[in-house]
Amino acid sequence: MFKSRKSVSIAAVSVVLLAQGALAAEEQFFPITSYRVGPYGANGQSFFGGFVDYLNYVNIKEGGVNGVKLVWEECETEYNNAKGIECYERLKDKAKVSSGPIHPMSTGISYALIEKTAADKIPMAMVGYGRTDAVDGSVFPYAFPLVTTYQMQASAIVKFIKEKEKGSLAGKKIVFLYHDSAYGKEPIVALQEEAKLNKFELTVIPVAHPGNEQGAQWLQIRQEKPDYVVFWGWGVMNQTALKAAQKVGFPREKMIGSWWAGSEEDTVPAGDAAKGYMSATWNVAGKNVPLISDIEKVVYGAGKGNLQDTSKIGTILYNRGVSVAVLSVEAIRKAQEKYGKGKAMTGEQVRWAMENLNISNARLKQIGAVDLLPEIKTSCDNHEGSGQVKIQQWDGTKWVVVSNWIEGNKALIHPLFKASAKQYATEKGITPRDCSKES
Amino acid sequence: MQFFLEVLIGGLLSGVMYALVALGFVLIYKASGVFNFAQGAMVYLAALSVVGCMEKGAPLWLAILLAFVIMTLFGIATEKFVLRKLVNQPPIALFMATIGLAFFIEGLAPMLFGSEPRALDLGIVDEPIPAILDAWGIVISKFDLVAAGVAALLVTTLALFFQYTRIGRALRAVADDHQAALSIGIPLQHIWAIVWGIAGFVALVAGLMWGARNGVQFALTFTALKALPVLIIGGFTSVPGAIVGGLIIGASEKLAEIYLPPVMQSLFGGNFGGIEGWFPYVLALFFLLIRPEGLFGEKHIDRV
């Protein structure tokens, strides 16, 4: 009788403790400002589908990060700056308690949030877009243009062309055809520096938004007879450019686009006109990346997949969403290593982690994400962490990688960021941190 | 000179594409005296209906036919559920209704047929015609010529329809005064349903040409942006005016895009270009100042 009373007591205490444990289970919040409808909704569906699928994957496969469950809330921005700010304001209270990095996925929204996120101590990642001089973390502690920037990308594209031209671009002619916006204009300064260094002739030709009419620009290109066209398009501008290049007979094999002009959404609508076209990318397409096939098996197998249209799994933008989620989750792991495993991390703690990321190929292999990302090593004075891209080519049905990782000319490009960040600091009255004292 | 001609011809052919969209606006304006804000969205819906039906296995001809049915039903539904309630209301009320309609279509169309950009192959290659290229060194695409032919046919048919049919005349009467038209026995609801149906057909033709050219995607709704200056120049009530306005806008914006930036750079320094986004509107503003009714529009005179 006594024994059974004791057993009951132990069981009761255990239940209470378990219940308390369950109540106290930590949750790591991710504020997601996404766009799945509106003009760029198709791109957003793939990207954010990949992002959310990876968070789910970590929850299902590992039970979260060291037991901390990943939770998130999405707010629809429609790629609209005003709505982006509204979404941020709606999500920030939860994010102030614990927060993974916020990914605005829009240069306009990220510019609008750069000061707000710093004031609220919420780290903002701008992977492949946004304010590129935030590479200098001494001025922008909470902003991270991770993986690579427009300028480093442009520089890497020049390096790729140079390799194709047997090591010299002297006397060659390159046209830079760009979306007439902050996004399109960012690489001009880098290309001008590269033109001086490599002695090629650079002609810049803008295209007015939205870019669904490019007849005049391509006639001008036809007249210029360039050796290559470096192309910075977005949305409908991409398909229109490919069709217009076909119309004037410019070879698509001599046309290299940015990573926002290099997804299936850009090439499929252009039909045969896209065949041979190349673009930069920091993530490969396809399901042969082990992580992608495992996500499909684990997450969609459990009926928790985020995409209704599962044919998007393995596309460039889906894989890119996964790659960005990998970065975010690795930042949470890193933060937990320093501030306590099994605890939810605050924005401030995650910020530290993002500034001290060290994702090696060995780690990428463990995750199953080799080629989904280049190696990343960030620091206070380098919030970019890589600066590498691959070049891929559209074979008519799929993207095929045609280069190894190519790093832009850091010695040439990074001083440009420094100079721009310094000017920003002066304008805003910011005293830059001393990066030598950061650890 | 050869380059100038090339730009000019390319601009004129682009203008035809603008005119295709502008025609839809003219039809609705003639029938109800209102600027149909939803015309761009209708172009999107029509093109998306075609590729959506093709994805379900329909051949191109059947997909076009089904899209026509969808657009006609849409026109009838618009009259029944939106316009009928607004008879004899101020034009601004109708205009606001079309804004709502535009958002409704932009949400509905991708829900029905998906939002990912898709190719539309009409079997017409968008490549330079070799004979013209060899003889004169000028790039003229086969696709653009077909588009010009389609636009010419459409304009001729519509112009004859408005001028010589009973429905055409009734339509013009309705545009002048809803109440007066009703009082003399013109069936306003039928007329509006017919016109919205025809506007749907015009949107389908524009959607097919624009969709084949740039892919079928949300950005088709932006085609309406260029229609506004076309209408201001050609006149809101003139079918041939839409074509002439389109040609003027197309040619002038392309010539401006090529020849203005060097002049502006020499005057002000810096990097100019990408001006075809705003140039048509400046030109339209200029026309508004000197000829507010447009080149072919009806002069509006009110008795006091």
Descriptive report:
Chain A has 439 residues and is an alpha/beta fold. Chain A folds into 2 domains: 216 residues, 3-Layer(aba) Sandwich (Rossmann fold), CATH 3.40.50.2300; 148 residues, Response regulator (Rossmann fold, 3-Layer(aba) Sandwich). Chain A has 15 helices and 14 strands. In chain A, helix 9 links the parallel strand 7 and strand 8. In chain A, helix 2 crosses helix 12, helix 8 crosses helix 9 and helix 12 crosses helix 13. Chain A starts with a helix and ends in an 11-residue tail after the last helix. About 2% of the residues of chain A have low confidence. Chain B folds into 2 domains: 190 residues, no CATH class; 81 residues, no CATH class. Chain B is mainly alpha-helical and 304 residues long. Chain B is globular and about 60 Å long. The termini of chain B are far apart.
The percentage helix of chain A is 40-55%
Cα-atom Rg of chain A, whole angstroms? 23 Å
Order of helices and strands of chain A: HEHEHHEEHEHHEHEHEHEHHHEHEEEEH
CATH superfamily of the largest domain in chain A: Response regulator
Question: What Rg of chain B, in angstroms, do the CA atoms define?
Answer: 20 Å
According to CATH, the fold-level topology of the largest domain in chain A is Rossmann fold
The CA-CA distance between the termini of chain B, in Å, is 54 Å
Distance N to C terminus of chain A: 61 Å
Task: Output the number of helix runs of chain A.
Answer: 15
Structural category of chain B: mainly alpha
Mean pLDDT of chain A: 92
Count of β-strands of chain B = 0
Number of strands of chain A: 14
Oligomer: heterodimer
